Records
---
Amino acid sequence: MAGRLEPEPIARRDFLGLAGWWTAALAVLGSLAGMVRLPNPRVLPETSRRFRIGRSRDYPVGSMQVVPDKNVLLVSRREGFAAISMVCTHLGCIVDRSETGFACPCHGSSFAKDGSVVAGPAPRGLRWLEVSRSIDGRLTVDSGREVPAGTWFRA
Ligand code: FES
């Protein structure tokens, strides 16, 4: 007679049957948990790449100013405003300004003042970024939107 300290042995066939049921139950629970999580996005939405850089009067005609912390050079001319990305198109280093335009410290690419490639290995010129005016009248740059080189925003 089996007591509390000596439980009745489970037959092998019963043990395998119970293990099968538990496995099936865990699989169903796992599937349900996955279905519950499915509507929630697994990635965070990308933060906006638009940023305000100030009023147009802060950038007098003829000036070229690096926007702090943004790796963008804002060029102001009579034609309007242009934002040139200072991210090298080779492998993404931040280019330095030079007398003739821009120079990449990583692999030696150089770019003219308009961002066009003078010497590789950069495969293409620096990106020109979209400039616009926000509702409050400040100039805005969208680093996620490239415009053709030579596109000037008239304020
Ligand atoms: S990252 Fe600029 S030349 Fe390679």
---
Amino acid sequence: MESLDNPEVVNALAKVAGANSLDIVGELSEESEMDEFSLAERLGMDVKTVRKILYKLYDSRLVKFRRIKDEETGWYIYLWKFHDDKLEALVKRMRRDKITNVHERLEYERAHQFFMCENGCTRMPFENAMEYGFICNDCSGKLGFLDNSNIIDNLEAQLKEIERTIGS
Ligand SMILES: [Zn+2]
């Protein structure tokens, strides 16, 4: 299973179910299944919060549950189980989305020349700057050429970093 120390896993869980979902996943991954009251007790959280997080995790298919009837009280108990294959799939999907996003930004930066307001209000591609007569729409400052090679280098470095993570 994906390590819960992996920053990509931490980000993925925080995104779908909030930062404190990590604790719940941590507990669930140690046990075969657990009910929400035991989870709440172990984590020192209230049951409502635990339930809310479990539902979010369930929406992302990261947990499943089965319902059993407590013969004494007649109440139903929900036993939750962590679905670690789905966590791996989620991390992979988010990684792919991130790669696509960085690629698109990189293509955009490579495909355009940018102009920026001398007072820093705005940055736009050449075509738009020309339409405005190279005058800022906000402050009437001059729009000057902006070298975006730093931005391109930065995006390329991000892509390399993601690829390195996948390789490891
Ligand atoms: Zn301006």
